[in-house]
């Protein structure tokens, strides 16, 4: 048998370039935000100091990045779309000292294989530039063009030739939030560069060049951050750690404002993130997430940025030291701002135990008395940032006014009368067998045992069903505010608010969307205390986003859950006899009284036999 015959029967053969490029695109280009990231990386590597990002339909229709960088010549224009063609790697050793954001030469080839690409470029000093079109990996045109210095890349109809990938994209709001985070990462890592983000003709960001990091954060995430940021920097022989931490009082109920960078490159590191959030524990409650942006600078030879197809993860040569030093610096910055540094009396600390960075990594700044359990709730310290000591603490309103409608306002005289009646009459609830345990649970005996009701979970079920029912009514029940309020949102919050606006209106929120990520609220559902509307609305958006990846429910139900979670009575709230009775009456009037909206039990039953068995 000849060699030619053998080759004809071979079952292994090289893949055509158009197929291999689409496979590579599946790893590198996962969604529109992946395209934005690759184009921004290339623009920054090209030395641009002004970048404009244009998005249409959350990147499905158009993604365009325009920069004023070094541009390309005619010879390089085609080469940049070749697989593994790059100007940043010359030999194998360069892989272990990468200083640029892009380096593998996969991005443009992968993008071009699944989209319609138009690239215009011109080098400063050249008389004329060039325009190149490539669709699905196939060249359409190559011609001279009059263009400005730099490069403009327009990506149209992403995944137009890979229908299955296009169908797996999420909603426009979700995809745009991913794009927004990608732009935020680039803008935070490069405050010396100017960024403009335009989405469907709306200017989301217009960030000037050479902008101080604190000002950039405030412009991107809200003016409330400006006076509430802690800046820090520590340098060691191995690692430099610098960044910005937010005051713990600005925590949110969902992740999304935690940023890590190494040598200007955003990266994810679950354990390091866990360590940083753990430091915040003494000031924050469970599932509260603070803003931080932490920048690590290390010798490129000490970090491998090529361990993930999308370069989202990195591997440090000495990961333990990186985590330990970062933890010490963050802990020191927070404790210096809020607490007096303290060395435990029996500490093993000595000058010899100092880390190579020149500062102690084992000092307990909080002291042994600062420890607490999660169950005790967040410990509150007076903030030295943006504090207003002239205002008296806001008193909580009587709970019965916000939970139940008794038909009249409870004034001082009525409260006094109720107290007198309680002191003169037998406790009606205890006659019926109701008690409140630790201000968290309502206990009642049954014919054959003991029933325990979780007051928070029970009220969540009540409010959830009420909110869900409100969205089905023709005319929402709204209490109008005496004075309308303007509320400023971050860009991601405002994008979500736009998506949920129709449902919020039906729930009883009277919200008007304004320009500049601002909304005006003039009415709220009757269950909300006047004065809490801003915190309730923002918390709902955060809770909704957190629920997004956890439960498979429609938008209306998730928003009702978010509303109920924020407005339900908290654990630890003492209830009056009337409130306990009404709470249970309303619970058992619900369609599903035995579970809260997230399927957690509202009550538990303990048979009398089980109780008796504990005394044998």
From TrEMBL:
Domain DNA mismatch repair protein S5 span(s) in chain numbering: 217-335
Keywords noted in UniProt: DNA damage, DNA repair
Disordered: region residues: 344-431
Pfam families: DNA_mis_repair (PF01119), HATPase_c_3 (PF13589), MutL_C (PF08676)
SUPFAM superfamilies named among the record's database cross-references: ATPase domain of HSP90 chaperone/DNA topoisomerase II/histidine kinase, DNA mismatch repair protein MutL, Ribosomal protein S5 domain 2-like
Residue ranges annotated for the MutL C-terminal dimerisation domain, each copy included: 433-575
GO molecular function, one term: ATP-dependent DNA damage sensor activity
Purpose: This protein is involved in the repair of mismatches in DNA. It is required for dam-dependent methyl-directed DNA mismatch repair. May act as a 'molecular matchmaker', a protein that promotes the formation of a stable complex between two or more DNA-binding proteins in an ATP-dependent manner without itself being part of a final effector complex.
Family, similarity comment: Belongs to the DNA mismatch repair MutL/HexB family.
UniProt-recorded name of the protein: DNA mismatch repair protein MutL
Organism (species): Fodinibius roseus
């Amino acid at each position: 048998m000849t060699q030619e015959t053998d080759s004809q029967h071979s079952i292994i053969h090289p893949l055509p370039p158009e197929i291999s490029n689409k496979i590579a695109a599946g790893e590198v280009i996962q969604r529109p935000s992946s395209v934005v990231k690759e184009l921004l990386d290339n623009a920054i590597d090209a030395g641009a100091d002004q970048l404009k990002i244009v998005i249409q339909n959350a990147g499905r229709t158009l993604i365009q990045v325009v920069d004023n960088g070094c541009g390309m010549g005619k010879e390089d224009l085609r080469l940049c779309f070749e697989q593994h063609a790059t100007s940043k790697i010359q030999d194998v050793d360069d892989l272990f000292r990468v200083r640029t954001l892009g380096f593998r030469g996969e991005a443009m080839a992968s993008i071009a294989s699944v989209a319609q690409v138009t690239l215009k470029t011109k080098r400063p000093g050249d008389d004329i530039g060039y325009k190149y079109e490539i669709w699905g990996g196939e060249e359409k045109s190559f011609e001279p063009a009059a263009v400005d210095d730099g490069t403009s890349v327009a990506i149209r109809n992403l995944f137009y030739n890979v229908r299955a990938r296009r169908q797996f994209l999420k909603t426009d709001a979700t995809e745009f939030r991913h794009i927004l985070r990608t732009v935020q990462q680039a803008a935070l890592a490069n405050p010396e560069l100017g960024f403009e983000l335009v989405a469907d003709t709306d200017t989301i960001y217009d960030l000037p060049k050479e902008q101080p990091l604190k000002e950039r954060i405030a412009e991107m995430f809200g003016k409330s951050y400006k006076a509430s940021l802690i800046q820090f920097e520590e340098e060691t022989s191995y690692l430099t750690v610098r960044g910005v931490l937010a005051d713990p009082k600005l925590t949110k109920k969902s992740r999304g404002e935690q940023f890590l960078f190494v040598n200007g490159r955003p990266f994810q590191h679950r354990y390091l993130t866990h360590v940083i959030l753990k430091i915040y524990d003494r000031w924050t409650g469970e599932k509260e997430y603070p803003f931080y942006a932490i920048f690590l600078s290390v010798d490129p030879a000490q970090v491998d940025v090529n361990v993930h197809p999308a370069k989202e993860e990195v591997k440090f040569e000495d990961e333990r030291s990186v985590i330990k030093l970062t933890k010490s610096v963050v802990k020191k910055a927070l404790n210096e701002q809020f607490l007096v540094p303290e060395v435990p009396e029996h500490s093993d600390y000595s000058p010899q135990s100092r880390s190579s960075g020149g500062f102690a990594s084992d000092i307990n700044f909080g002291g042994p008395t600062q420890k607490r359990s999660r169950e005790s709730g967040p410990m509150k310290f007076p903030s030295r940032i943006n504090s207003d000591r002239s205002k008296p603490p806001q008193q909580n309103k009587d709970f019965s006014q916000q939970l139940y409608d008794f038909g009249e306002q409870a004034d001082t005289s009525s409260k006094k009368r109720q107290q007198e009646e309680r002191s003169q009459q037998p406790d009606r609830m205890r006659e019926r067998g109701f008690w409140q345990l630790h201000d968290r649970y309502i206990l009642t005996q049954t014919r054959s045992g003991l029933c325990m009701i979780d007051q928070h979970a029970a009220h969540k079920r009540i409010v959830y069903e009420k909110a869900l029912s409100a969205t089905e009514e023709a005319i929402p029940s709204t209490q109008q505010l005496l004075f309308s309020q303007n509320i400023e949102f971050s860009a991601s919050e405002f994008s979500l608010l736009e998506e949920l606006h129709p449902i919020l209106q039906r729930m009883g929120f009277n919200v008007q969307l304004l320009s500049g990520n601002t909304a005006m609220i003039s009415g709220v559902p009757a269950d909300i205390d006047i004065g809490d509307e801003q915190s309730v609305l923002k918390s709902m958006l955060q809770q909704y986003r957190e629920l997004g990846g956890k439960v498979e429910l429609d938008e209306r139900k998730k928003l009702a859950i978010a509303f109920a979670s924020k407005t339900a009575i908290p654990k630890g709230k003492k209830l009056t006899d009337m409130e306990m009775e009404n709470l249970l009456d309303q619970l058992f009037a619900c369609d599903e009284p035995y579970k809260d909206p997230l399927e957690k039990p509202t009550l538990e039953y303990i048979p009398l036999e089980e109780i008796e068995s504990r005394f044998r």
